[in-house]
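Final report, closing paragraph on structural work. Over the funding period we assembled a curated collection of sequence-structure pairs, and we close with a single example.
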Amino acid sequence: MSSDASFLHKAIRGLALKHFQFGDFAEHQLLLTNYLALAAILVVVGVIALLATVSRMAPNAFKSRAQLYRDHPELRDTVNDKLAAKEFAKLNAALAHAKMRGKKVGTP
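Its predicted structure, as stored:
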């Protein structure tokens, strides 16, 4: 056991003994407290590892749109193409609707 772990163990043991008094019941509570402290440490380490893994797997997930466009200019073109296609579809729908109603479209 390293000195840091030994120190942590002694600190937890001291706090638990102070809190639960002495006796057989206190030893069981102390053991439970040690396991709960270990579980809490493992959960924190696991969450940190999960966040590090996710950020490494999807590095663009945490970037703003401006950063993405600056790093990948081809994305801006793709987004602009999609917006243009959407706008073109709206204009075509309006044109079809106008033709259906019998209006002349495109002539002054």
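The radius of gyration is 32 Å. The CA atoms of residues 24 and 30 lie 10 Å apart. We thank the funder for supporting this effort.
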